[in-house]
Write a structure and sequence with these properties.
Helix 23 runs antiparallel to helix 24. The protein is globular, with a radius of gyration of 24 Å. The model has no long low-confidence stretch (mean pLDDT about 80). Strand 3 and strand 4 form a beta hairpin. The strands form two sheets. It has a two-stranded antiparallel ribbon. A two-stranded antiparallel sheet has the order 3-4. The chain has 28 helices and four strands. By secondary structure, the protein is mainly alpha-helical.
Length: about 650
Amino acid sequence: MSNTKLPENAMRPLRPGEEYEPLMPAKANPKEVTAWSLCLGLLMAVIFSAATAYLGLKVGQVFEAAIPITIIAVGLASALKRKDSLGENVMIQSIGACSGMIVAGAIFTLPALYILQSKFPTENISVNFFEVFMSSLLGGVLGILFLIPFRKYFVKEKHGEYPFPEATASTQVLISGEGEGSQAKPLVIASLIGGLYDFCVATFGTWAENFTSSFCAWGEAASMKTKLFFSCNTSAALLGMGYIVGLKYAAIMCAGSVLVWWVVVPALALLFPDMEVVNGVTAAMASPGQIFQFAKSIGIGGIAMAGLIGVWNSRAVIKSSFGLIGQAFGKNASADRTERTQRDISMKVVVLGIFLSFMATALFFYLDVMALQSQPLLYSVVALVIVFVIAFLFTTVAANAIAIVGSNPVSGMTLMTLIMASLIMAAIGLNGTGGMVAALIMGGVVCTALSSAGAFVTDLKIGYWLGSTPAKQQTFKFLGILVSAATAAGVIMLLNEVYGFTETNSDVMAAPQARAMAGVIEPLMNGGMSSQTWMLYGIGAVISLVLNYCGISSLAFALGMFIPLQLNLPLLVGGAVNWFVGSRSKDEKVNLARVERGTLLSSGFIAGGALLGVVSTALTFFGCDWLIQGGEWSTSTYGQLLSLACYLLLICYLIRATRK
């Protein structure tokens, strides 16, 4: 394929009457589903499901598998000299990426079952492979089915309005494998620079991962006294992510983070010094990070309200999705003549799939989850309604978040689901440990559904840009979900056998999200949540309402309130670099060319960081400890100052490289 560059109108809104023509035109018949793409995609799903589950449960961070899988697919196709492999590589990426989305849904909730089992040994709490597997499988299937009717809205009708940072990075990698295009060399160079930069930090601890206000003794003392804390992650991957997100959304997210970290956290310590914020520690004695763990409930309330606002604002889209279903079953339904690049799975098949998923979930709840309860039928029906309503309504929210900033607030939305499920189930008589188990499994299904929907919109956007067949992506996504769900369930059970998910071994097997979920539902099922937490939820909801009235993205702001400061500030830095390189020339064409080149380089930062992040994880898994001075150097004053200096050099490189 000679054209190895996306069309000029790929990243901007289309003008009236203008059409987007992908690299693989609609009239073409590219190789997509082959024995090679299926086998390699499934192999990637197994490998990365295991790796992602281990890392996520060990240290609480889930790396995005889609980009490393894309790089591997492109590399193997090049090494084996497979011609016209673009369609195959998209399919490999789409199937393999099931690993990250299924694992994220599973490990955020289901290990909490083991934690409850260890905390209440006298209660009849059983955890088996079937429960963990079915929760992940049903959630993944529902997420895909619920998203399909919205595909055209997010990837075509909103063309150019959303940055899709992860989809952008993966697309650039896929294009680089097509011939000797002008984009391949700078992408490879940027990938090497960004990958080695982040690899040195993760593997050797050559400098600090974050530059903080506690880089010296007086700074740490000032932070503890004033509760004002500064922290910025200096990784190349996050700098690249911020560049692609752009200044607008990055600034909104950062504003939300600043509100919580620099206003709410100090205010809580000043106004309520004796209030307990975490494990018996009062606000006056707590660190800013500990107070944030309490204060981020504002973000959860904000995300919940932003989600409801998003559902209301998307009512026309939701209505049109029902219209598509009605047309499929109407008297005038005819053969699908839609062009290949816009052809989805038949709406009849989607409806049938949702019905079968509904029945399977009902049986799962009735015969397994609620089987030993006093009113299994009532509890199963209520649980089924909660799961399906929340999963359907918040599918658009998850997709929206990924499209805007590449970050899915799935943990925040799952916490909201757990709270609602716990309150409703307790109200109808299911409480105690039985209620906790039921709420966690319901949360696991919803969490996986939202994680899957958010991740899949990235795959579909990649396919839209390049010209894949959506129906083929959708069909074989279910096979990837099946394999990933089985792998994730097996890894979770294996890690429990080896390490054990208990209250006392959080240093060995962190599972921070699952522990947080268990901590949220226990008071709800045994008496209720504190009034302070409800107040913070309410404040977050009000903030989202006010922002929406002012025409500001409430979801982006709420994400900023929920995500730690060190992960938001680098997005602002990257967004500022994007603005800077795109505004230096009086010639608008030059500015656009520079921004486009910066997008290519930023994609390289993300790709290199993701790929070598997997390598670093593998070294950790096999017990390689190469940290300088056991990691103490990287957190020292000199380690943090070196981190800042290297970060500034990286920014200078990105700016200079865009001007070529």
